[in-house]
């Protein structure tokens, strides 16, 4: 067992070489002047494929969080403010290049620590690099406006950075979420303290090393590991953090808003859960629809905020669809994440495994029918069989609550209005999809669904140029695209009087 470090890598206070072998996390921590401030708590990192301990990671305590915030503040008020927009852009592009150069290493760490299939993990790293490069391009295109009110005034607006941004990310896409957060924050000129998820801190620590290599000034991006209740809470309650960007559960999202209200009313953006409808009409290309429905629920082992976990099929093709979907599900390769053929690896942790198995038992006891799956896969590791429930009533827990695993519910609908009503029958509103050959149906249903993204004849078609975020209880604010810049800037209005004539 090896100790991987730590908390704030680039404050200038720590010296901490992290060396990682190709598939083997090894590191040393050398503490310097502030070592007595460090929390000595460590968390064991478990390989979810075999339940063995990989290494342990220091958790940032309240004082560590404070050091990181101070470093971010010092940098924001000092050196970082003098880096030009072009300079910020170049740093992000350099970081993107380093992600690409280290693709195999970063992907292997994701597969080890999170359990995701290696092919999927490589996709995550490629998308992370694209996202960082995209926001590098935005850095020198953040512009204000001149607003003409009357001849006596000259008015303009500036889009200024918010300041020190606390960012809290989940375990389902450790580096992709890291990049979605870092990219726009840095492009807009903020500094950052980012907390990885307690289950998957390893890739964030390696990425911290790449930040140094890319040449970011000290204190601009501070990476901390730790638990939500301690490290996360210290960040959200901190009086010198100007903004929190959070991705995770709706339950914790509420706590983040509360922490803001109880502290300094820091700005908050939230990307929360979902229970997204995937709607298939009689006239859809059935092979295409089944491929996307399968991808929509089982991609990343169902651990996606936008997972298409409620599948609604029009009555004319319902029986045929269920049979064909079961056949397709049986073809998904479940197993070792390092086998390139694997589509579904283990769930991230025992807690998640137990939670999902609990929902499966709940579905059975409430009277829903298991069409396929419903049990553990194998005897070691947190693997779960891909599971389809039918005969699911709208008020059942499995139809209403986010399961975050390879488990879906399938139900019938009659017509467009029924599809929209059933699709919207949830407190969430993150994503939705419509499968049909009729453009008018696609447009009407897309307009009627209360979701931040609607996909037509596809699923999980997330792209760094397209805004992503939730209606209803799925979130506040938008990530990705130009829209994300609004999360990380504030508008200053400057109004200049052009005459000395008396005005009262
Ligand atoms: P979570 O608790 O919401 O975790 C997300 C992040 O928030 C983690 O970094 C977490 O730290 C941190 N956190 C937890 N409590 C906090 C607090 N009081 N103050 C500040 N930060 C806090 O999610 P989870 O427990 O890992 O998963 C539970 C369920 O959340 C899942 O089953 C799923 O339904 C949902 N979820 C959604 C997404 C999404 O992408 N929308 C992602 C992950 C989970 P810890 O690592 O210590 O918890
Ligand atoms: Mg949690």
TrEMBL record:
Molecular-function annotations in GO: aldehyde dehydrogenase (NAD+) activity
Q: Which CDD domains match?
A: ALDH_F1-2_Ald2-like (cd07091)
- A family per Pfam: Aldedh
Active site residues per record:
271
Q: Tell me the pathway.
A: Alcohol metabolism; ethanol degradation; acetate from ethanol: step 2/2
Sorted alphabetically, the keyword list is: NAD, Oxidoreductase
Source domain of life: Eukaryota
- SUPFAM superfamilies, per the entry: ALDH-like
A GO term from the CC aspect: mitochondrion
Enzyme category, top tier: oxidoreductase
Gene Ontology terms: biological process: acetate biosynthetic process
Q: Which reaction does it catalyse?
A: an aldehyde + NAD(+) + H2O = a carboxylate + NADH + 2 H(+)
Q: What is its EC number?
A: 1.2.1.3
Q: Which family does it belong to?
A: Belongs to the aldehyde dehydrogenase family.
**What is the official name of this protein in its record?**
Aldehyde dehydrogenase
The record lists the organism as Trichoglossum hirsutum
Name the gene: CLAH10
